[in-house]
Amino acid sequence: MIIKPELVKKIKDYFNLNIYETKVWLALLGKGIASAGEVAEISGVPRSRTYDVLESLEKRGFAIMKLGKPVKYIAVKPNIIIEKLKTNTIAEANDKIKNISKLKETDEYTELEELYTVGIKPIKHEEISGSIRGKSTIYNHIKELLENSKKEVIICTSVNELNNKARFFSLIFDRLKKSNIKMKIALSGDEKEIEKLNKKLRIKAKSISIESKFFISDSEQVLFIISNGKLPEEEIAIWLNTPFFTSALSYLFDKANKEPAKEN
């Protein structure tokens, strides 16, 4: 049995194995049940190393040691491996999320916040601005921007974008309503879809004819999405903390949307 180098490389990366583990596992899959000597012959891995590699694969759930003598190993079905890896990944991710969440309760986090506050106080508003790259990072900033608002938020985007992120925005809208924050929302796209979304999210979004995506908080901060990359990591936004410009933009938004909203 010939094991293709291209397959070895891809399987190694997919399953987070080293080169010997990959070759031995592929050899075992091709044989079904095999001794260390047989696996060494098929895989090309030195026989002296094959025993250790098979033990490693057994511990990780890629192989099962057959009872009896001579000692032989049985390959585990790939689908079972994938399901196990999925379960382990989810468990590891949940543990990391719990640990990250607990960071806010530490003294070190308090010191980080104090450092940021001390550093940011002497800086002029207009200097606190920058570009943000990547859809996930952009939406984290949108969440922070909107949820830290004190009086009013303005949201201008497309009905498709709001639909695609309905759960994300629904949670934000609920929090803003509970805090009595005024929401002004304008959406481009199909008017019937806008009406459906208004009922679904219990909002009063108006229809606009231009395609634009920006989010304003208290007429002080604005986040513009300036490009929609083909890949999520290619999307770019600009964040500005300048009341002089943002209040003017808020005024223009109000002027463009002064006609009464349609009843849902």
Q: Quickly name the level 1 CATH class of the largest domain.
A: Alpha Beta
CATH architecture of the largest domain: 2-Layer Sandwich
How are the strands ordered across the major sheet?
Answer: 4-10-9-8-5-6-7
- Multimeric organization: single chain
**Overall morphology:** elongated
What class do helices, strands and sheet pairing give? alpha+beta
CATH superfamily of the largest domain: Endonuclease Chain A
Total of DSSP H or I helical runs spanning 4+ residues: 11
Number of folding domains? 2
By CATH, the topology of the largest domain is Endonuclease, Chain A
Main β-sheet: number of strands, strand sense, barrel status? 7 strands, mixed
Q: What is the radius of gyration? A: 28 Å
Average pLDDT score? 85
**Strand/helix succession:** HHEHHEEHHEHEHHEHEEEEH
How many E-type strands?
10
Roughly how much helix do the residues carry, as a percent range? 40-55%
Distance between the termini: 67 Å
Strand content: 15-25%
Weakly predicted, low-confidence segments: none
Question: Would you kindly provide a written description of the structure presented here, covering whatever features stand out?
Answer:
The chain is α+β, with helices and mostly antiparallel strands and 264 residues long. It folds into two domains: 5-80, Winged helix-like DNA-binding domain superfamily/Winged helix DNA-binding domain (Arc Repressor Mutant, subunit A), CATH 1.10.10.10; 128-256, Endonuclease, Chain A, CATH 3.30.870.10. It contains eleven helices and ten strands. Strand 2 (63-66) and strand 3 (72-75) form a beta hairpin. Helix 1 crosses helix 2 (19-31) and helix 3 (36-43) packs across helix 4 (47-59). The longest helix has 25 residues, at 78-102. The radius of gyration is 28 Å and the shape is elongated.
